Amino acid sequence: MAGKFCVSLTHAKDNTDKATVAFVVANAAVGSDQETMVFLSTEGVRLSQKGYADDIHKEGFAPLRELMENFAKAGGKIFVCSPCFKKRGLNENKLVAGGTIVGGAKLVEFLASGSPSVSY
């Protein structure tokens, strides 16, 4: 991989535009040979659950479920904020492909190497 790229996402069904565009950008990054990570926090952690994104489809974009699946298939990583996940009582056994529950230290480690980051 040429470099690293981080997409931080704090939204899910509360702002489906931001959730969709975040994964469009993440797919562009992973497709550009960047080691790409999407960090889901606050409401964004809901996207870590299988089936949650199935009904999100913004006009002009591929369905969010498809964007997320393509991202994982391309080698993208979906890091899920552990405290945010636990606060919402979500199920570890229902994580989407590419999803891993992590602490904030994992994000810091990724960014400390000089990774650019965008937030949605």
Q: Can you characterise this structure?
A:
This protein has helices spanning 16-31, 64-73, 82-87, 104-112, and strands spanning 3-9, 34-40, 77-81, 99-102, 117-119. The protein has 120 residues and is of the alpha/beta class. The chain has one domain: DsrEFH-like (Hypothetical Protein Ychn, Chain: A, 3-Layer(aba) Sandwich). Strand 3, helix 3 and strand 4 form a beta-alpha-beta unit. It is globular. The two termini are 24 Å apart. The model has no long low-confidence stretch (mean pLDDT 96).
Number of helices: 4
Which class best fits the helix and strand makeup?
Answer: alpha/beta
Shape assignment = globular
Number of domains: 1
Q: Tell me the β content.
A: 15-25%
Low-confidence stretches: none
Amino- and carboxy-terminal Cα gap? 24 Å
Count the beta strands. Answer: 5
CATH names the topology as: Hypothetical Protein Ychn, Chain: A
Order of helices and strands: EHEHEHEHE
Strand order of the largest sheet: 4-3-2-1-5
Fraction of residues in helix? 25-40%
Radius of gyration, taken over Cα atoms and rounded to an integer in Å: 13 Å
**How would you characterize the largest beta sheet?**
5 strands, parallel
CATH superfamily: DsrEFH-like
